[in-house]
Every structure is written in C-alpha cells, then in structure tokens.
Amino acid sequence: MDSVFKDKVIEIIAEVLELENDEVGLDDALVDDLGADSLDIVDLSFSLGKTFKIQMPQKSVIAHALEVADEDSVFVVNERLTAKGAELLQLSPFKYSAENVTEGVSLTEVYLSTSVSNWANVCFAIKESGLPGEDVIHHYVSTFCEQLKAVA
C-alpha cells in the first residue's frame, strides 16, 4: 500500500472526527487515541466505502470466525482472545499488531485499540480484491479455519 492511499485514509478519518490531518497518525487508535464513538465508526465505514468505491464489512473478523468455526472456544473464551484468536486477527486483512492483539486480550480492548493503520489495511485489501468486504473477511476466516483443521 502506498503513502497516497494511507494519506487518503488519514484525511477521511480526520474529516469524520473533525480533526486536522496532522492530528491523526497511522498508529493512533480510533477510539482510545482519537475519541471516536460508535456513530463515528459507522460514519467512517460509510465514508471510506464511498471514497474507495468498496463495500466495507458489516461484521468483525471474530464474528465471522464464530460463525465458521466448529467450536467457539477456538478463538474466544470468556470474551478474551485465545492464542488462535490473536493469530487470526494478526494475519487478517486488518493486520492487527502482535503488540496490541495477544492471547488474553478482551474483545473490547481489540475494538478500543483498532488503529488508523488497521482501517487502511482492510480498505486496501478490499480494494485490491475487488470483492465486497464481507466476502473478503469471510474468505480469509474460512481459509484460516480450514488450515487449522488440516494441522489438527
């Protein structure tokens, strides 16, 4: 992904959150650092989709995983990520960092720490694929689950 794409994501996030572009960094968490609320996230998803002519996913990677997996406890136990849940998110189109997303982190903490870079990554993956975001995430999760079964 080139810097022009990243800069456009930063510009859109700044606009939605009524900030200056230089107040938004790639490593900033939308909620924890930039103060976004749930309505801002919806607005952001719409704005990114419109700008990049993509369909953003409506459900999270974990929501898809819980639908696809044979057993829920593979990825989440007591609302906290398992090692496989952390790996699922780190390798996902969002490309969560191993620093922020580890075994034992709560799903709320994942949401609160989702960064500008994570949003840029998923937008880029969807744009490159030419598919709707739901399909991109579902395909990724299905492939990940199939690989888990093959190893087991």
From TrEMBL:
SUPFAM superfamilies: ACP-like (SSF47336)
The keyword Nuclease is assigned to this record: no
Domain Carrier: 3-85
Name of the protein in its database record: Acyl carrier protein, putative
Record keywords, A-Z: Phosphopantetheine, Phosphoprotein
Native source organism of the sequence: Photobacterium gaetbulicola Gung47
